[in-house]
Amino acid sequence: MAWLTLTISAPADQAEGLSEALLDLGALAVDILDADADTPQEQAMFGEPGEPAPHLWPHNRITALLEEGAQPDAVVQQAARAIGLEQIPAYTTAILPDNDWVRMTQAQFSPIRISERLWIVPTWHSPHDAAAINITLDPGLAFGTGSHPTTRLCLRWLDQNLRGGESVLDYGCGSGILAIAALKLGAARATGVDVDPQAVQASRDNARLNQVDAQFFQADQATPQPADIVVANILTNPLKVLAPLLASLTRDGGQIVLSGILGEQAADVAGIYGQWFDCGPPTVEEGWACISGKKR
Q1: How far apart are CA 287 and CA 107, in angstroms?
Q2: Does 174 carry a binding-site annotation?
Q3: Phi/psi zone of residue 216: left (φ > 0), alpha (ψ -120 to 50 degrees), beta?
Q4: Cα radius of gyration rounded to whole Å, the chain
Q5: Do residues 121 and 80 lie in contact, with contact meaning Cβ atoms separated by under 8 Å?
Q6: Is 172 annotated as a binding residue?
Q7: 3-class SS at 28?
Q8: What is the pLDDT of residue 108?
Q9: The predicted structure's pLDDT at residue 161
């Protein structure tokens, strides 16, 4: 059996109402995503310290999963009327074939070679190099599998710069991959912080899977201790807001590593962090930048 996907663009004041109306009209599932994702206008869904939590993004993309025989025109019209819209929003549809989604998802994720000695290996694969440092990690609800350039940039920085015995703080830990990698690369202590409770739980699960003693907390439930190395792979706007906090969490003489930054935004971010850090030139991969600096 195939399925029908229905996608509607909506502002913040309409997105939640439309999604609820679509569910009431028989949609099997509905999700809301940032329509500005991967652009300079992208916004974090969860509020960071010092910044009010947004209810929804300014521009939202609503995707509903319908049975193949559904009539999208009628569904969209009824959903719009249910929330009092006079104008029917524009929408697109696509056919989603019925597949073995588990097998297809697994086929998309093979072991990822980060460096000469560091690999990310899904649980359904055997390591290519048993003697390498292998991080066992599956794709899940939290960001950070090693497949995105921003994660690879941070992992390579840790691989090249950790000397052993350091304390590491991963702010915005996602899957916990950076804290886990830091411990496997020789850090003495690694802590992760995230505003998303699902990310914190995923990180704890991944730490157990990799048999490392990384500690993970929600940002509003614990105050991290200053660390020798602070890594933040988030997005440009949260990184700007968090600059004073991340600087205070980096020990004097310590280092900061920032990613989730589009290449054209790197100079702006480096200028802000230059108040506390001597930043080197960014490392760029596939249009994404990683900035590092030493605290004065």
Answers
A1: 26
A2: no
A3: beta
A4: 21
A5: no
A6: yes
A7: coil
A8: 54
A9: 98
Between strands 118-121 and 133-136, the pairing is parallel
- 102-135 burial by CB neighbour count: b if 16+ within 10 A, else e? eeeebeebebbbbeeebbbbbeeeeeeeeebbbb
Which one-letter DSSP state was computed for residue 288? E
Topology adopted by domain 3-98: Alpha-Beta Plaits (3.30.70)
Residue 280 CB: number of other CB atoms within 10 A? 11
- What DSSP character marks residue 179? H
182/188 Cα distance (integer angstroms): 9
User: How far is the C-alpha of 3 from the C-alpha of 202, rounded, in Å?
Assistant: 30
The domain limits of the chain are: 3-98, 143-295
Q: Which residue has the tokens 């703080």?
A: 169
Phi/psi at 238 (nearest 5 deg)?
A: -60, -35
CA dist list (Å): 64 to 95, 102, 221, 289: 12, 20, 34, 34
Structure tokens at 49: 């310290």
- The structure tokens listed for 103 are 């097998």
| Residue 81 identity (one-letter amino acid) | R
Q: What is the pLDDT of residue 105?
A: 52
Does 161 carry a binding-site annotation?
A: no
99 annotated as belonging to a binding site for a ligand: no
CA distances from 6 to 9, 36, 83, 230 (A): 10, 18, 18, 41
pTM above 0.70, yes or no: no
- For the chain, residues with pLDDT lower than 50 are 50, 52-53, 101-102, 104
Domain range 143-295, CATH class: alpha beta
In this prediction, residue 36 carries a pLDDT of: 85
Contact yes or no for 176/194 (Cβ under 8 A):
no
Place of tokens 């959903």: 79
Q: Is 85 helix (H, G, I), strand (E, B) or coil?
A: coil
Q: Residue 81's pLDDT is what?
A: 95
Q: Which residue, chain included where needed, has tokens 């996907």?
A: 5
